[in-house]
Amino acid sequence: MESLEDLASLSTRLRDIAADAATGVGPGLRAAFRSGVSAGHKTNAHDLVTEHDRASEEAIVRHLLACEPDSRVLGEEGGHRGQGRIEWIVDPIDGTSNFAHGVAFFCVSIAAALEGELLAGVVYDPIAGLLFTADLTGAYLNGAPLHPQAEAEEARACLMTDYPSAEALALDGPAALEAFGELVGTYATVRRKVSAALALAHVAAGWTDATLGLDTNPWDVAAGVLLVRQAGGSYLPFRYDDEAGPAHEAPCFVAVGPGGNCPTAVAVVERLVAARRATGYRR
Prior knowledge:
Blueprint: H1 4-24, H2 26-32, E1 39-41, E2 48-50, H3 51-67, E3 71-75, E4 79-82, E5 86-94, H4 96-101, E6 107-114, E7 117-125, E8 130-135, E9 138-141, E10 144-145, E11 158-161, H5 166-172, H6 174-186, E12 189-191, H7 196-205, E13 210-214, H8 218-230, E14 234-238, E15 252-256, H9 263-278
């Protein structure tokens, strides 16, 4: 078992490895963006994938395993690979729909965990040139420490959410639009940006006050969880069962910047999760 000092040193090294891996695929993503990207479908017409998702993940995985051989990888495109003690959680393009449609709100997300505990996280916006990083020493934007302050009043706060998706509309019915209407009526602005990782990074930077998500995957949020928490914010996970586990493995969440107060967002997610649990829904 590493000492706290050793863990801090390890987390910083893993952060730097992840940052190099993320920025390494940046030139290719910038070159492909708005160049007529062809997208295919995975689970449905709303779940897109491109050749750049797959190529970027392969390049990222090669870099991570070369720099830290005692690793395993959970990637959105390639699934589980390797047997090492350090787990890398990789989303090569979070916000593929935006990327494919020429909308400049997508990112590369890479996190590192040891025995379920997040040690490092990187969210890289290649179009804006924004490198968000976090380790056990803090959270940073392009190397500068992040010290955000969220809006304390809900009526003046900015909220990001991808809810409701088409799948959520089919699952939750009228309750989905009622929930979205409650959010729109409560907050100063509600923005649908379709990248949970980048939304969490914006909370960590203080550019949005809160974000919530339902039915996310570990690769969508793992890096963002550490960013928000190390920037002083809170990340509240919600599950459909009573099992314990790492926050980034929970399918639903509310994240709020430091000083923020978003009881409506929390109540909305609690209500939706409870209603789904009552039907036996699991994910």
